[in-house]
Design the sequence.
């Protein structure tokens, strides 16, 4: 029986990396972990972790050092967990392949359709999906006017979580929830990414629902769904508690349209707000 390939999981400080380490380890894969955090990462404490590498920072140079280390450990697959890791692996994708290591994410041409929220919304609208009213001002006065039209509260979202700028990626500033005009400028300024101003979006109340799919070049071959029970912040944020649920046929159809339009390959999650 042939031995399963060794896998390097990035962003070992995240709970997603820990889940991957446990799942792959139970399946018989040798698991290695990396992080740019100072201390031993969460996933490296798993019984399935065979070793870990600390990145000095998140740049292409640091990832080149990681690649050399991974090759020495016999790694055959690198599994990027975050947007930043995907972009940095793809920046020198050919070098990973030459080292005998498969990059476990799609190429930038596919990924940027989802990483750039403005592009995602554009594709979703073309597919006929209902989207929150979203504006793209290019001045502070434009934000004030647009927010007044949308009505408070509003969301201020960076166009991308970790856009790559040359050899590095910019930090993720997250989403800002703005309740009144006095807080608008402070939310917009740090989320401007060079020439890209952040998106200003209508706040939609309701229950958050997620549809997950595993796709083969645009064709979903497996499905899963969940709904949110608790959010980190009641006003709006990432979720802290979810439960699996039956897949809503309407949400499945909408997700299928979007993923086919993107020609998505691999796992994906499409988020909805049931208002």
Sequence:
């Amino acid at each position: 029986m042939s031995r399963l390939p060794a896998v390097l999981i990035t962003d070992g400080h995240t709970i997603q990396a820990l889940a991957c380490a446990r799942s792959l380890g139970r399946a018989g894969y040798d698991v290695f972990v990396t992080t740019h955090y100072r201390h031993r990462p969460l996933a490296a404490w798993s019984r399935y972790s065979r070793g870990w590498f600390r990145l000095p920072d998140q740049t292409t140079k640091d990832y080149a050092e990681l690649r050399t280390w991974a090759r020495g450990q016999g790694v055959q697959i690198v599994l990027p967990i975050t947007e930043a890791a995907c972009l940095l692996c793809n920046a020198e994708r050919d070098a990973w392949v030459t080292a005998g290591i498969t990059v476990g994410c799609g190429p930038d041409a596919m990924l940027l359709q989802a990483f750039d929220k403005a592009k995602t919304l554009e594709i979703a609208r073309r597919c006929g999906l209902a989207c929150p009213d979203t504006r793209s001002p290019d001045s502070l006065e434009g934000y004030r006017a647009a927010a007044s039209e949308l009505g408070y509260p509003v969301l201020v979202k960076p166009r991308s979580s970790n856009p790559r700028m040359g050899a590095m990626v910019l930090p993720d500033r997250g989403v800002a929830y703005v309740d009144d005009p006095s807080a608008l400028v402070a939310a917009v300024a740090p989320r401007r990414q060079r020439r890209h101003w952040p998106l200003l979006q209508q706040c939609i109340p309701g229950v958050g629902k997620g549809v997950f799919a595993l796709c083969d070049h645009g064709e979903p071959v497996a499905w899963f769904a969940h709904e949110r029970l608790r959010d980190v912040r009641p006003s709006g944020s990432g979720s802290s508690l979810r439960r699996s649920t039956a897949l809503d046929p309407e949400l499945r159809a909408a997700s299928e349209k979007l993923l086919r339009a993107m020609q998505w390959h691999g796992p994906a999650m499409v988020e909805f707000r049931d208002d």
Residues 249-262 form the longest helix (14 residues).
